[in-house]
Every structure is written in C-alpha cells, then in structure tokens.
Amino acid sequence: MANNYKITLEYDGSNYSGWQRQKNTKETIQEKLENALSKINKNKVEVIGSGRTDAGVHAAGQTANFFLDIQIPTYKIPIAINTHLPDDIICYKAEKVAKDFHARYDARGKKYRYRILNSNFNSVFVRNYVYKVHQRLDLDIMQKGAKIFLGSHDFAAFCSAGSSVDSTIREIYSFDINSKTNGEIQIDISGSGFLYNMVRILVGTLIELAKGKRNLADLEEILAGTQRERAGFTAPAKGLTLLEVFYD
C-alpha cells in the first residue's frame, strides 16, 4: 500500500521557470522533483506543493507531499531524492504523514523574506538573492508603512492579473523590516496566504514610499481600493525567498 510523505526542501530559483510543471519547459522545480521520485519509485509520482513560487523566486522551506509505492525508511528519502536532483535543489527533511494530508490545502500560513541591498555597489556573493537599490531608502517610514498592512484586509490592489482565487482577503500576521550592517534590508512577512505577486507588490510599494514617491495616506487609500494600478511596482523575483510553511 502506498504511503504519503511530506518533504521540506530548499532551492535556488535563478535558473527555473517557477515551481509548477509547464508544457513549454522542463526547467521547473515540480518537474525535477517528480522525475527524481519516479526513478526511485519505478512508477510515475505526482508531487503536490504547498503553493507555486514564480520564476526566479527561491525557497528555504518549501513543502510538498507525494505517495510512494515502494517501502523505504523515511530517513533515507531525502538522500535518495537528492541523488537524482541538480545541485540547486535540496530535500533536507521527510516525514510520513496521514493519507489525507495535502501540502497545499492543509497549510495554515507562510513566511517570506525579501532582501534589498541598499548600496552603491552590488555584491558578487548575494547578487542573485537581493534587489539592489542605489537611492537611500527611509527605513523608518518603510516600517511605519508595513504596519498599515497588518491584520485582515482585501488585498485586491496587490494582486497581479491572471489570478483566479475566490477571495482576495488575506491576513498578515507579521511584517518586520530590519537593516543589516552590510546595507541589506530584510523584509520578513508572514500571513494566512498570499495572492499572485502580493509580497513583491507590497515590497515595491514600500520602496516607492521609502523613496518619497508616496506617503502613508496613499498606502491606506490603495489598500481600501481594489485597483492594481494604484499600488507600486512588482519588485524583482530574485529578492524573494519562501522561508516556511505553517501547519497545525
């Protein structure tokens, strides 16, 4: 009888067209995982992710589940998977879960980090994981702006076109912005769930606020409305990392 397994993985999204399997490319995280697991299982395996990450977005704590027909000690699953994965995708944890566990539908929230390098110079070592902004950003007003988004709101104005969700209401649990000594600004946001490009649009809007292009009243008006064009630009994908997926 097949067993259901949950895995936790990390990946560098730089060279991939996102999480979801696609017809026009084999360079997706889901396809790489399914190919690896199918080799182990000797039969086709479908992987269910907690959600989709876009092209260029990274993950440090993405979760997924799948069924295996073979009998294998749970602790050996990450080792077996990693044998068949490229170096920029790593599975580091596996758990046997209930038959009805679903990585997406059972998720209760997610935490993301967006990294901005607020400096005159880029960094060779982090350039693929940060968005470099030359103009000095006002950290204090960014922190004040982030507080406006806390709680439950209709985030329709912060959702890119192409989304087919039933509701655009989401709850933000925490929204923390901190400066590091190397000029990096780290934005950590956790919530019940996020709309298509929502985190990146929120970050883009806060960057415009920090540059003096918007004020705090603008953010409140944008949030109260539903017009995407009123919100800020979509910050580049490479600065975003999925840190954690929450379950009961």
UniProtKB/TrEMBL annotation:
EC number: 5.4.99.12
Domain Pseudouridine synthase I TruA alpha/beta: 10-106, 146-248
Binding site for substrate: Y112
Pfam families, sorted: PseudoU_synth_1
MF annotations from Gene Ontology: RNA binding; tRNA pseudouridine(38-40) synthase activity
Gene3D superfamilies: Pseudouridine synthase I, catalytic domain, C-terminal subdomain, Pseudouridine synthase I, catalytic domain, N-terminal subdomain
First-level EC class: isomerase
Catalytic residues in the record: D54
CDD domains, alphabetized: PseudoU_synth_EcTruA
One Gene Ontology term from the biological process aspect of the record: tRNA pseudouridine synthesis
Superkingdom of the source species: Bacteria
Enzymatic reactions: uridine(38/39/40) in tRNA = pseudouridine(38/39/40) in tRNA
Entry keyword set: Isomerase, tRNA processing
InterPro entries noted in UniProt: PsdUridine_synth_cat_dom_sf, PsdUridine_synth_TruA, PsdUridine_synth_TruA_a/b_dom, PsdUridine_synth_TruA_C, TruA/RsuA/RluB/E/F_N
Annotated HAMAP family: TruA
Family designation: Belongs to the tRNA pseudouridine synthase TruA family.
NCBIfam families: hisT_truA
Biological role stated in the UniProt entry: Formation of pseudouridine at positions 38, 39 and 40 in the anticodon stem and loop of transfer RNAs.
Subunit structure as annotated in this protein's UniProt entry: Homodimer.
Name of the molecule in the record: tRNA pseudouridine synthase A
